[in-house]
Write a structure and sequence with these properties.
Blueprint (H helix, E strand, L loop, with lengths): L3 E7 L4 E4 L5 E10 L10 E9 H10 L5 E14 L5 E14 L39
Parallel strand pairs: 4-6
Antiparallel strand pairs: 1-3, 1-5, 2-3, 3-4, 5-6
């Protein structure tokens, strides 16, 4: 079974796009701090994460550099020889679930037409929260 769960912070703003077949994707990098041992600094591992379809839409809209996330998915390692002649490698994760762990600070205002996602969201008169259509949910 190939399952991985990581918790860390985005190292850069996510990149988004659409395949030639019309499938949305979102790619971002997550830094995960290891455990500190004695006087040595805590090691940091970096993971490249790709989300697809509705999950990609949510990640592209709400994630930004520095935000904390929990990612669950499938891992794949890649290795190559760099231009400097040294062996290089990384772990790539295809996300099956992404949980946004940072506070809502810095999130776009759902009533802002210039916010990611476009036009102002309809607001529920009773709760004051934006109305979300079932097709917009990432699950």
């Amino acid at each position: 079974m190939n399952r991985i769960t990581i918790i860390g912070n985005l190292t850069r703003d996510p990149e988004t796009g659409t395949t030639d077949g019309g499938i949305n994707w979102c790619r971002f990098s997550v830094a995960v701090n290891g455990r500190k041992r004695g006087d040595s600094p805590a090691p940091v591992e970096y993971f490249e994460v790709t989300a697809w379809r509705a999950l990609a839409d949510s990640c592209g809209r709400w994630l930004r550099k520095g935000k904390k996330v929990a990612v669950e998915g499938v891992a794949r390692s890649t290795a190559w020889i760099g231009r400097d002649g040294n062996a290089k490698g990384r772990i790539e994760v295809t996300a099956q679930d992404v949980e946004f762990l940072s506070s809502g600070e810095g999130r776009p205002d759902p009533t802002d037409a210039d916010a990611p996602g476009g036009a102002p969201a309809a607001m529920d008169g009773q709760s004051g929260l934006p109305v979300v259509e079932p097709d917009d949910l990432p699950y």
